[in-house]
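Quick one: structure tokens for this chain, please?
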Amino acid sequence: MSEKEVSAVGIRGRLLSFSIIAAVTILLIAALGYYKASVVVKESAEEKLLAKVGKASAGFETWLLQKQRIAIDTAHFMEDLDDNLKGDRRFLNVYRGDEAVLNIAYADESGKFTSYVRKDFQNVDVHTRDWYMTLMKEKRPLFTNPYDSLSIGNVVISATAPIFKNGKFYGGVCVNIGIGSLLAQVGAMNYEGSGEGFLFDGSGHLIATFAATAGKSISEIATLAPHEKDIMAGGSIGLSSVRGDNVVSYARVPSTGWILVFAAPEQTVYFPLSKIRTTYIVLTLLGLIAIIAMFKLCTIFAHDIVTSIRAVEKRAVEIAGGNLAFRDLPIKSNDEIGELTRSFNTMQHDLKNLVGTTKEAANGVLSSSKNLLKYVEMNAESTREVARLASLVSEGMTRQLEDVMNTASHVDAAFSDMDELGKKAEQLEENINAASTNASFILEDIKAISVNAGNEKALAKCFDSLFETFKALSNDAKELTSIVRAVEEKTGYIIDNVNSMDMVSRQTAESAETIETATEAQEAAVLDIVASAEAMDNLAKSLEESAERFKL
């Protein structure tokens, strides 16, 4: 897979990953939102159901207390009534003003047992009636469970109240409530138009319902059987978890201990939850559709991006390969991609101009380098010539120094010989003067001997002495001549050395002139080198100014 494909796949992969993450996020948010909303809606529905059964229980409690109030008021009335009148059934109708009350009965320890509907129960022992015996035992207002009424001939419940005489239980009043009234009260219960109410006694036996038969236990009713444990173990009010298709709420009637139960269909109770579920499903699907559409749009957009980036990449590869002969890339949009393409085109032109400037500068640098090389070679040649001439001057000066030293030694020797010559000349002069004096004396002696005809030996002796004098003078003259010749030789050698020194001095002067000429040529070459260096420096500054537009 090429780098282009990797780039394209990378962008599409990132977009796909982003879409997947967005989809998962939406699903999680939807699930969390649904969960939170379902909890709230479920709690709200359950609270509403509990409020419904609580309200029904409170209403039923109020309804029962009204019937119990009739029993209590009638009991108080009968307590104050004369004993002879207590058997008159007409007095039992004083407080009767409720259609639900079917009959009011009176019984006491004297054996009286009568009711408004039935005159008397002469053949009935009141102690055989459960309601009476329970009232005598508890000595407080009570409600009975359903039972068969002798006066009505049907199943009723009764509200009973005790009658006291001298602080002791004396009798009681029984207010019969028709079971139909209970059915109406329980049957009126509904939740959003559906559901079924039940009234059970404290032991879980059915008292009244709209459809079921009285006397059945909770376990015998299919709707409530799964909830029996929750209902019987519950407190004053509660809700049984969903089992089957119903949600069961229950509440106890405080005055009787009965249990008012209401079973509502789960779909009805949690209908808002199903609506929320549907809404969340629709919203989730819409979100996923939106994500798919967004992914499709992002894919198209990614294709445009990848196409533009590939074009820029291809052009960058061409530029890297040295190809600057190209046209501008087409700008297809005014967004960031278009701006990228526009900037890349600008970079192409700047790079092309920079390369052109660099090429011109390189040519200038090459020309300056050639000139600089030529001037350096000239400078090197001048330096070599100066070095050669300096060597010659050094050799000439060394020879001149040697000649000067030799000349100095010969001059010293000549001066020494001349001093010796002078001394010899003075000695010779003294000798000549002495010889001349001796010769004069000898000549006088010879002349005297000749005049006087002296002795010949003496005369010979005088001549010998004169010859010795002349011989000594001759020897002195030869020695003086030899000294003069030696002085002449040294003087000649000194002259030769002086001539040699003069020739070396002229050669040194010529070499110095040549060195000066070479030095001037070298200075000119150095100036040319400096000019070439300045030209290269100007080219470098030009390149630097061009490069300042680019950040590295």
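Confidence is low (pLDDT under 50) at residues 1-8.
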